[in-house]
Amino acid sequence: QVQLVESGGDLVQPGGSLKLSCEGSGLNVSAWSMAWYRRTPGKQRELVASVHVYGNKNYADFVKGRFAISRDNAKNTVWLQMNNLNVLDTGVYYCTAAGTGYWGKGTPVTVSS
Distance between CA atoms of 93 and 79, rounded to whole angstroms? Predict the structure, then answer.
């Protein structure tokens, strides 16, 4: 059974940082392009960052310079380091293995003072 389990979401003040993790089971994250999406209040789910199977990384314009995606193949985990968070980053963050249809259930991030 394939599972992607996100964790690390929390309440953080503006300007703060969080590191999200997405641990895979039943699926080798190194064999797939992995991506983080988010659903923010009033908006549809949007792509945040992705890492290609060969290591190329892409970021949405609204997170460039603030977020970093990485993958730890030994731990079968994908990370999303989020720095300089602002209130517009509030939402639920999901990871997915691109093209597989597998999604995690999400981890909530709240940025508020």
Answer: 12
